[in-house]
User: Fold this.
Amino acid sequence: MVHKAMRTEVRMDVLKKVPVREQDAKVRAANFEEVCLGYNKEEAMEEAGRCINCKNAQCIKGCPVAINIPGFIEKVKDGDIEAAYQVISASSALPAVCGRVCPQESQCEGKCIRGIKGEPVSIGKLERFVADWARENGIKPAGAKGKNGKKVAVIGSGPAGLTCAGDLAKMGYEVTIFEALHEAGGVLVYGIPEFRLPKEDVVAKEIENVKALGVKIETNVVVGKSVTIDELMEEEGFDAVFIGSGAGLPKFMGIPGEQANGVFSANEYLTRSNLMKAFDEKSTTPIMRGKKVAVVGGGNVAMDAARTALRLGAEVHIVYRRSEEELPARVEEVHHAKEEGIIFDLLTNPVEILADENGWVCGMTCVKMELGEPDESGRRRPVVKPGSEFVIEADTVIMSLGTSPNPLISSTTSGLETNKWKCIVADEEFGKTTKEGVYAGGDAVTGAATVILAMGAGKAGAKGIDEYLRNR
Amino acid sequence: MYKILEARELAANIFLMEVEAGRIAKRCEPGQFIIVRTDEEGERIPLTICDYDREKGTVTIVFQIVGAGTRRMARLKAGDYFQDFVGPLGCASEFVNEPLEGLIRKSILFVAGGVGTAPVYPQVKWLREKGVDADVIIGAKTKDLLILEKEMEEVAGNLYVTTDDGSYGRSGMVTQTIKDLVDEGKHYDVCVAIGPMIMMKFVCKMTKELQIPTVVSLNPIMVDGTGMCGACRVTVDGEVKFACVDGPEFDGHKVDFDQAMKRQQMYKTAEGRAALKEEEGDTHHGGCGNCS
Assistant:
């Protein structure tokens, strides 16, 4: 006890977060183990002590699923982690996921009062600790009250679909999720790499929790192809449908040489590594183990692709047309990528991919950019520096330029309106679409965004569906 | 899990399997494909549908052993299960949505090469059920590798079989037979060619000269089969298309076959190619990167 008290006294700087342990950058650059090791109970309780339990808690307003953050932190402070878990799981179906991949700096932690004078409370790491502790100790979320006899179909088992399904099941609905791939989880499984989000220990376990609420998951059903929404409602007896099918279609640049062998979408590269387990030496799925990889783009997906390629043994360059300040990726991801040795070629834009006589990538012609006047997005528009052409040597190019929603569903569902970006039109509060009984949310509505925003939309959709079915 | 009701070897290393898949059998049309995964560690393998029985709720596939994944598939027997079986994917053949009055007046030629005979079969069968008789050419390397001859005979108008080595039927490549038929005075409004990439390329070269519009069915490298990965991208008429959602059938006169063939070699390393050649022996049918 004396030792603990002393330690606390020595370290305790209430303006700073309790540091979280991480795998050393040099070591982790060569493995797929998780980068961040998380808090232990002692560290979590210490960090929880930094929360001043604001009456008008701003952090809750910053959370898309409105978790009672001071409420759960209070329980952590008391050392009652099980109670803390029940507080979180009343609002979130995927706390172990969110504690890892949410952009807390721009949400809950961005609003934390502690952050005005020092560092905000490490809400994300605390959430992660609570969720991991609950899993390790076999604690399950509180279940459904009783069945109400109404059937809801949820399309897609990513963050939006899982959240919507979980919420509806808790309200007593009989929910079936239809998933196009052979494994449930959506982007959590095919997109985000193992070193950021362990699949077996974290994702699979949270999906099991959703199933434990009574949600059925049917894999290998491509809605729009295997069955249509109209058929689900008219022939299979579903009273309402939630579409959380994501934004799965990759964008390419449309520059010469893009069909050369060795040019991949980040989607393909990550799907091979994550869903098909190509990162694992024992897997039979092939993946390009390039020597020199150029990743085009500056978002979180670009960081994931780059850090995956690095772990597969390559020298990796991020090629981004604006400056570091405009990088859309989370600061933490950029920081991790740099620590691991990813090289950033900023203010650089590809104009052509070069291929050898057999059709394989051997380089990429780029131009240097400079920032001009702000464009409609408010970011300064990059313009080409005349005469700045140069060649980057590369045997693999990964295009990470964002994704758009898949038209498979919108094109096969009568009366479902989409906008000019092929996104399904749905209101924000309830996810209501232009078709009666059909609700939507997540990337399918907004275009590519974050896990937590999709979860927020899943919650809104569940609320909308409940309201609709109770008043019908 | 998807039960295999029937499994038999049609020819050396070419297998037919009938699989229980109710949702797919109910909705699939000629020209579409499925993706199959043998077990937890298996690859996702795309295969064009060979036949379907809506009442029985089954889908029939035909495949040739070309690598580790198909080798594992071939070990399964009737009564065993596939881990995953998803579809129907891609678009149906164009004629499926054509008004029947126009279709019935058309003279259609199908050209099937090797295992490509399997995806041609449901198209010819569909047309026969609608009262349209189509001519069919089946090309095989040699007599022993000829598949589905009897089945095709039952649904085709005229059936012409040719073998590269002359061991059965006519002698020579399918392009020779096309030319012979046209020289004999046959007229075709449209040609559908399905087989190895190299065959489709040369059929298209020939039909372009003969001015017969030609449809081909591509089977490029894929992962998800729903438009997500872009591995299957192919250039058609200067535009990039995804074979899984925009195809798999395209206007053969507009496909960039040279690029498509290069892309097929993507995951075949030098050592892989050598191993493939040894494994495949006489069944080798293109895609290795050395034979085109």
